[in-house]
Amino acid sequence: MRSMTCIGFNCANPGGDATDLYTLSLESTRPDLLFVDREEGQSPFFSEHDWRIVINNDDSEPIQVNRFAIQDEETGLIPFTLMGNAPVNSLFVDANGDIGLGTSIPQADLHIIESDFVRIQLGVTGSTPKSWEMTGSGQLFAISYDSAALPFILFDGAPTASFTVDPAGQVGLGILSPEEKLHIQTNTPNTDAFALFDANGAGSDAAFRLRQNGVTPTTWEFRNQQDSGRLNVGLAGGNTPLKIDNAANNNLLRLGRNGKPDEVVVTGTLVVNNTDMNVPDYVFAPGYELPTLAEIDAFIADNGHLPGVPSATEVAETGLDMTQMQLAQLEKIEELTLHVIDLGKANAEQRDRIAQLEGMVAALLADH
Q1: Is 152 helix (H, G, I), strand (E, B) or coil?
Q2: CA-to-CA distance for 284 and 338, rounded, in angstroms?
Q3: ∠ at Cα 270 (265, 273), nearest 5°?
Q4: CA distance 23 to 71
Q5: Among the residues of 304-321, which ranges form H helices?
Q6: pTM for the complete prediction?
Q7: What is the pLDDT of residues 224-241, one digit of tens each?
Q8: How far apart are CA 192 and CA 182, in angstroms?
Q9: How many other CB atoms sit within 10 Å of the CB of residue 233?
Q10: What is the maximum span of the chain, computed from C-alpha positions, in angstroms?
Q11: Dihedral (C-alpha) 259, 261, 263, 264: value to the nearest 10 degrees?
């Protein structure tokens, strides 16, 4: 026969009977078990802490509490509590020390199983309270705070090395061994390695900056300006030497075209110093008033330089605008070409008239 004992004011059969399934039973309206250490003061090497196993609530608690708890008798605090109706395998420690929450077969140091969402919450209750939460589901893994913002989301199906940080702090997107501070790699055919800076907020530009703190500290920025759609390249907070309009035509500037490394091709109209860099073909247009050589001669006599060309005095005072000078020179060359053409035509007419006169003279001499 099993040896069974019942202790407590509510024991009906202190000795137990053969049908009971317990070895020791504590039966009372508030059963508990106190562990008292009597070694206080005997030696500094002996422990002096008392503990209690508490079942359900005690006299100090006004509401019903169904629990199994361990209480520190020295402080009155309860560091461990197991509530009634807790599901199976709420806490399981296997032979390897692995902990299972919701499973009796933990596959890691800590293994948590739930039917839909698994949540781990980190709460700070000090001077700056904050609640952080890690959530896992069948679709994603996320980190949130204050049960609202989601700064980090990883979706199911993300490929290997979607996000990597190596021991040097280099970040890889799509690569396990990044070679720079940020390294983006794609291995799928017909998939570009794009980085997109997307500004969706009202009044927000999309931009990135390049800064160095060397001999000449400088910060350059590439900015897609929201109010114009223009790409601006310039110094952060300073001048913008390069601007590209969003309606610019294709291939306006090409460097090294068709295997010619020293070739620079500019299509359309080149404007320098607010002047259209276009050849002055208006000289050849019908109705252009070509100044006569006599008019040019008179202008030179009065001014000491060609019309439309800055004088030496003007250059000394304001400097030489090479763009204006090149255009003026081309205009004069085109005007000079027209004068040469006119002179050529006049010379041809004179040769014809001389030939006619010579023929007439020869005919007269033959008659005499």
Answers
A1: strand
A2: 8
A3: 135
A4: 24
A5: 312-318
A6: 0.64
A7: 999 999 999 999 999 999
A8: 16
A9: 13
A10: 178
A11: 110
Asked if 17 and 23 count as a contact pair (C-beta separation under 8 A), the reply is no
Nearest of 162, 164, 158, 188 to residue 177 by alpha carbon: 164
Cα separation of 25 and 12, whole Å? 11
Joined tokens for residue 310: 């800055």
Give ∠ CA 319-320-325 in degrees, rounded to 5.
155
Residue 22 identity: Y
Predicted local distance difference test score (pLDDT) of residue 237: 92
CB contact at 8 A, 221 and 210: yes
| Three-state secondary structure call for residue 273 | coil
- pLDDT at position 2 is 61
- Strands of the sheet with 206-212, listed across from one edge: 206-212, 218-224, 231-235, 242-244
Q: How many CA atoms lie within 13 A of 11 on its CB side?
A: 17
pLDDT band at 15 (very low <50, low <70, confident <90, very high): low
Residue whose pair of structure tokens reads 């304001």 in the numeric block: 318
Residue 124, Cα to own-chain centre: how many angstroms? 30
Cα separation, 350 vs 156, in Å, equals 93
What the block records as the tokens of 162 is 């979607």
